[in-house]
Amino acid sequence: MTRAELDKKPTDVRRMFDAVAKRYDVTNTVLSAGIDRKWRKEMIAAVDARAGDRVLDLAAGTGVSSVAFAEAGVQVVPCDFSVGMLQAGKKVRPTLDFVAGDGTKLPFADDTFDAVTISFGLRNFVDTVAGLREMRRVTRPGGRLVVCEFSHPTNAVFRTAYLEYLMKGLPAVARGVSSSPDAYVYLAESIRAWPDQAGLARLLQEAGWTSVEHRNLTGGIVALHRGVA
Questions:
Q1: CA dihedral 161, 162, 163, 165 (to 10 degrees)
Q2: Is 90 exceeded by the pLDDT of residue 28?
Q3: Which ranges in 48-82 belong to alpha helices (H)?
C-alpha cells in the first residue's frame, strides 16, 4: 500500500480504489455517520448547474453525485480512473455515461464543460496542480470549478479529536464494513497530510483559477473551494 506521505503511484491508487469499489458508498456513509450525503448536496448546490449545462464530475466513483446532476437535466459526465469503480457504478446506475480517464490527462477537448467538480478525489492525484490545470483546460472561459475535499477542522480541540478518529477509529470501523479495510489506513493518512484551506486555495490560484474562495463544512472537516476559469 502506498503511504500518503510518499509519492502517489497512479497504478497503486487505482488498484486500491478497484479493491474498495464493491462497498465504497456504504462504507463512506458509515464512516461519516451519514454526513457525506449532506456534503455532496452542498457541493451540488455550489456548482449551481442549470438544465442544459455540461458538467464534468471528476473522480466520480460509482456516480453518487452524478445522479443528482442528471436528474436536474444537466449533461453530466462521470469520470474516474478506477475501472472497478466505474463497473460498480454502471451496475446500479446504468443510465449514466461513465468515462474512464486520468485527472492529470483528461480525455476531453479544451473548453468542453460549463463546470467541473471533484469530490474527495483531488488529494489522491500524483500532481495536484497538474490536475487543477487540466480541469481549467477543459472548462470554458468563465466556467467554474468546485472542489469538495477533506480539510482541517478550525477548532484546535475538535481537530485533535478528529485526527485521533482518523488514525485509530476510522480503520477500525472500516474493518467491519469495507471490502478492503487496509485501504482506509492510506485514506486516513492522505487526509491528515492534505493542505489546509488556505493551502489548497493557493494551489488553485497557481493552476490559473481566479476568484478563488472556500467555505467550511462541519467545522472544517470538509471544505468547498470554488474558482472561475
A1: 90
A2: no
A3: 64-71
Cα 8 to Cα 5, 137, 158, distances in angstroms = 8, 23, 29
Dihedrals phi, psi of 46, to nearest 5 degrees: -70, -35
For the stretch 171-190, pLDDT in tens is 666 565 555 656 667 777 78
Helices marked H in 58-216? 64-71, 83-92, 128-137, 156-164, 170-177, 183-193, 197-206
- Residues 6 or more apart in contact with residue 121 via CB below 8 angstroms: 58, 59, 61, 80, 103, 149
What's this model's pTM, rounded to 2 decimal places?
Answer: 0.84
Scan for cell 449551481, then name that residue: 48
> 463512506: which residue's cell?
28
> How many CA within 13 A on the CB side of residue 116?
30
Residue 101 CB neighbour total at 10 angstroms: 20
* 52: CB partners within 8 A, 6+ apart: 73, 74, 75
pLDDT score of 191: 81
- pLDDT bin (cut points 50, 70, 90) of residue 118 is very high
Using the structure block, give the residue that is written with the C-alpha cell 475501472. Answer: 83
